[in-house]
């Protein structure tokens, strides 16, 4: 049973098609990577999956009881956030916004979830620090904690290692792999082919519109 | 000097001015943080010019309660300007500038074509700089201001968490199913209300100061959202209070006196922030 699939999907902006005939199925527990050159439409595909913009034709189908708002999302950082005065805790907690429902304020359980996810990402000691003063790697961990507050099932990551140095990049991949080992379905956009072929179990090349399934590899490199 | 102040405070128009001034300062500073962070600092200026145009129409039509026309027109403009959210394209600021100057020109022309009093220059000056209009408030206007302020503050507190989420990352909020469109609409409406209220206090040219200064001051020394909001609310209220009292004692224009205090506080905060980051 696929958790998310694209059926004859065409994506684009303002009625202009960038890519068409996209078909893929993502299963629960997958580490699914979407690769392609810059400007090939990766981000557009991601936005379409998240429902941030409409598809030109075709559809994204959610299965296995998943609904659209249960996808955690790690976006690329925007310029806007560079001078934003917010503490780490405030940002992580905002990941619970989809569980607010008809309530105005976060419940005790939701605050606990936020603290727990910070613990999991190893950033508890940064709780009261200002987001804009953190390093690139720490910022990614904060945003990842926030995404975890929104979901327990599917994580969508948009270029998670962009702008990170090699050590932090390795760290980030390790972190994502641990989440995947715990049962989280990972959908990642990247052009870091070298690393992806180590970790991902399925790679979708957006230009060739084909899926490569990697049966071996992965774990053996990481030990 | 204290005697003089106590004497003035016994006049109802002084009390009214203080009540309304403090409320407006509070409301504008709350939303100011969101506006500044969303890169919408200039929207206050644009909207206030729209409100000026609307006010001119209301004056020409000789409406007794001008709010009936000014408020809806400003709200509609705010919604039109803000509906695109942070994803607005570059032409957004050109749109804003166009709307703003044409409303200003249109309003001024109307006031000249259909003069409602013999002193047009005085009227225009009052609307633009708010010079003395806050001292001519009627009890009814004070009540309207109180009701609208309570509405604004309540909305802000109830939707605080969502406003934070949307301000920080609109894309994420939308992706996890928050109704971003609705909250942008809500923010736009509230801003329009604040602008219309604030016109009385500082006039349409100086409104931006009330929206921007408290937020920027707070942001230059504080590091989390909640404290930034609280600090800008308190500092804005204090500046308004001091500004009104000083203007009454010294006979200076109310609006510009408040803005001068806001600007001074910003300078102070900015220096503290710089010194701290160097140390």
Shape of chain A: globular
Low-pLDDT residue intervals, each spanning 5 or more residues of chain B: none
Q: Note the main sheet of chain A.
A: 6 strands, mixed
CATH topology of chain B: ABC transporter involved in vitamin B12 uptake, BtuC
Q: Superfamily at the CATH H level of chain B?
A: ABC transporter involved in vitamin B12 uptake, BtuC
**Measured distance between first and last alpha carbons of chain B:** 41 Å
What's the helix-strand series of chain B?
A: HHHHHHHHHHHHH
The helix tally of chain A amounts to 7
Radius of gyration of chain A: 17 Å
Largest interface: A-B, 35 and 29 residues
CATH architecture of chain B: Orthogonal Bundle
User: Would you state the CATH class of chain B?
Assistant: Mainly Alpha
Q: Which quaternary structure do these chains form?
A: heterodimer
> Which whole number gives the mean pLDDT of chain B?
86
Helix content of chain A: 25-40%
Q: Can you write the helix and strand succession of chain A as a string?
A: EEEHEEHHHEHEHEEH
Q: Give the C-alpha Rg of chain B.
A: 19 Å
pLDDT below 50 for ≥5 consecutive residues: which ranges of chain A?
Answer: 216-223
What's the main sheet of chain B like?
A: none
């Amino acid at each position: 049973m696929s958790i998310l699939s694209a059926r004859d999907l065409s994506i684009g902006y303002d009625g202009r098609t960038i890519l068409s005939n996209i078909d893929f199925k993502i299963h629960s527990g997958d580490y699914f990577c979407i690769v392609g050159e810059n400007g090939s439409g990766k981000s557009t595909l991601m936005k379409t999956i998240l429902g941030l913009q409409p598809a030109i034709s075709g559809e994204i189908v959610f299965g296995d009881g998943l609904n659209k708002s249960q996808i955690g999302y790690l976006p690329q950082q925007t310029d806007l956030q560079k001078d934003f005065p917010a503490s780490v805790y405030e940002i992580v907690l905002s990941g619970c916004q989809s569980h607010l429902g008809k309530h105005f304020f976060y419940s005790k359980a939701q605050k606990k979830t936020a603290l727990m996810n910070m613990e999991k990402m190893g950033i508890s000691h940064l709780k009261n620090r200002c987001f804009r003063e953190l390093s690139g790697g720490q910022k990614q961990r904060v945003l990842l904690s926030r995404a975890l507050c929104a979901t327990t099932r599917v994580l969508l990551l948009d270029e998670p290692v962009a702008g990170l140095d090699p050590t932090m990049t390795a760290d980030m991949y390790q972190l994502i792999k641990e989440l995947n080992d715990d049962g989280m379905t990972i959908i990642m956009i990247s052009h870091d082919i070298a690393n992806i072929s180590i970790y991902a179990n399925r790679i979708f090349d957006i230009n060739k519109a084909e899926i490569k399934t990697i049966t071996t590899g992965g774990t053996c490199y990481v030990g | 000097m204290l005697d003089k102040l106590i004497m003035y405070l016994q006049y109802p128009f002084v009390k009214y001015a203080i009540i309304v001034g403090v409320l407006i300062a509070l409301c504008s500073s709350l939303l100011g943080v969101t506006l500044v962070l969303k890169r919408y600092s200039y929207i206050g200026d644009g909207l206030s010019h729209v409100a000026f145009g609307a006010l001119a129409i209301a004056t020409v039509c000789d409406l007794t309660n001008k709010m009936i026309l000014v408020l809806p027109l400003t709200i509609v403009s705010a919604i039109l300007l803000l509906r695109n959210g942070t994803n607005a394209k570059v032409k957004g600021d050109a749109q804003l500038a166009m709307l703003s100057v044409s409303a200003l020109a249109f309003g001024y022309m109307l006031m000249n074509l259909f003069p409602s009093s013999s002193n047009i220059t005085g009227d225009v000056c009052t609307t633009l700089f708010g010079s003395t209009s806050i001292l001519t408030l009627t009890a009814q206007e004070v009540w309207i201001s109180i009701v609208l302020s309570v509405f604004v503050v309540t909305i802000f507190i109830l939707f605080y968490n969502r406003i934070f989420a949307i301000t920080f990352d609109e894309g994420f909020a939308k992706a996890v199913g928050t109704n971003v469109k609705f909250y942008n609409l809500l923010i736009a409406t509230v801003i329009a209300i604040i602008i219309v209220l604030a016109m009385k206090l500082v006039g349409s040219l100086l409104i931006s100061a009330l929206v921007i200064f408290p937020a920027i001051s707070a942001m230059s020394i504080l590091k989390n959202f909640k404290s930034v909001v609280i600090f800008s609310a308190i500092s804005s209220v204090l500046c308004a209070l001091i500004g009104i009292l000083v203007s009454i004692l010294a006979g200076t224009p109310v609006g510009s006196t408040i803005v001068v205090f806001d600007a001074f506080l910003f300078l102070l905060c900015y220096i503290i922030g710089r010194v701290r980051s160097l140390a």
